[in-house]
Every structure is written in C-alpha cells, then in structure tokens.
Input
Amino acid sequence: MIITLKQNPDQAQLQDLQNWLTNQGFVIHPVEGANYSIMGIIGDTSSLDKRAVESLEIVDKVTRIQEPFKKANRKFHPDDTIVDVGGVKIGGGHFAIMAGPCSVETPEQVIECARAVKEAGATILRGGAFKPRTSPYSFQGMGPSGLELLVAAKKETGLPIVSEVMDPSQLEYFDDVDMLQIGARNMQNFTLLKEVGKLRKPVLLKRGLSATYEEWLMAAEYIMSEGNEQIVLCERGIRTFETKTRNTLDVTAIPMVHELSHLPIIMDPSHAAGMSRMVRPLSLASTGGGADGLMIEVHNDPSKALCDGPQALRPDQFSDLTKDIFAMRDIVVKHNLNK
Output
C-alpha cells in the first residue's frame, strides 16, 4: 500500500500515523519527493481500512499495490534510482558501458583488454574470475588470482570493475571489486541474494534463463529487503523455442522494467545471441530502446579465448561499435529532452 501525503503535513499527526502503522506490525518505507511525500507500507495490508486512512487530514490518497515486489516498485519510488559504481553512474539519464573478457586468463590479456575498452569509451571493466559453466569439464575461471588481475587492471586504467560471485563463501575475495555480479543461474539463489543484500556494494543482477519480469524483480527485492538498494538489472537473453541463437534478447524488458521499477536496466547482447556478428545490431537496438547501459564481451584474441570466444568482439570491432552506440545515445537523449 502507498499513502500519499499532502504537502507540508503536520508533523505531530504524521508521527501519530507512523506509530499507529508500526504498532500494527507494518514496515514503513518513506520517500521524500520534491513536491510531495509518500509512505510505502510493507506487510499484509488486507485488513487495513483504506477509507479510514484517507480520512486523515494529512493524507491525500491511498493506493493498494498488487505486485508482490515493494521496494523495487516504481509506485513506491517514482524517481529513477542512480547507482554509483566507483564514480560511474548508471540510471536516471546516466549511460554506462561495461566491457572486457568473459573470463580472466593472463595478466597481459586483462591489461590489454582494459586499455583497449577504456580508449574506446567503456566506463567499467568486466571480467570473470569465477565461472559457472554448463559442463563440469569446462574452464571454471582462475578464482581469487583472477580477481587480483582485475584489481591490477583497475589500478592501471582507473576503470572500476564488475565480476561475478557464485557463492557467499567467495565474498571475502571481492573487497576491491566495485560491483558484484549475480549471474543468470544464480538469480534465485536466495541465500546469495540475502548475503549481497547485507553489503553496501552495487549489484548487477542478471535475469534468469526463463524468469518472468516479476520473478526477476522479486530477486531484486530479496537484495533490497536486506538494505542494499544499489541494484542494476541486466537482461542477457531468455530461453525460447528458437534454436538459431543461443538465447533471445528481450528488448521489451527495457520499457517494461522502466514502467514497473525505478531500478536501472542494462543489456548484455553478447550472451543473448552467442555470436559476435549479432552484438552490433543488438547493442544499437538496446541503446535506441532506452537501456541505461550495455555489457559487452571484448577479447584481444577471441579464437583463443578459454570461455565464450565466439561471442566476443576484438578491440578494433568494439571501438567501431562504440562510435555508433554513442551516436545512437545522442539521438535518444535529444528525443527525451524534446518530450
């Protein structure tokens, strides 16, 4: 339930209302707006008399919420959330490009990729040290030593880093990582979601292979319920009946998530199709569709990559692509300003 207050409500009456709701076991989530204030009421509000609350002098209106996600709901938080990743802002009109290798392999590879993507306009370095793979015989990542290589690249280039954590036991290695990535296969690993929720570190939450929008936002709700509201959603393609591509990139997720939630959403065109030649059109479609950023895999020698080489761009290909992305982004920004 959302209680919209009148402007400049009497503070004594407001305190009385808050005490009354708290005594009934509800959790109050206040949001201060420029011209009004609202209170998000979390709990089973079915027994709460809407008309009785609306009759209060300081209350403008009361709105019941049907969706089970509360903190991630735009109705609770009308303004866009802006997530700060080591000084790089995402959401609320801020656009970010995360780029780098799928998997960290060698110091030379990481540094070379980091320098190349930064020169091309990327603002965050991505790289996997812990890799969830379908086959137990595939390369599983370098582990903690891989994170050390990413941190070294961060010191070399100044780019903040994002890397995937697969289990709560690994969190001790991520102190110097700027953003924690929750992969598609872990989207409903509720123990992991709760643990990263206890941290005050930005989280990149990827959509599960077959997850609905509501399930995705409920996963974000798990993180937010523990106090961490610095979440960026990432659409990376869902499993459909189509077999020509690795996954199907759901571009519809961009406007739908913006409608349902205040959290920023970025797109991962590399994992969607699984083919490097598809990355450019999917990146431009995502940018034109209003995404808050992109995550693109870049490898200095994709043919020798230990993980997902076929979907990675070479640095020169990435450089050519970012020129078009920024041109498309300019069009989107101008359109929004002229609304």
Observations:
- The chain has a mean pLDDT of 93.
- The two ends are 31 Å apart (CA to CA).
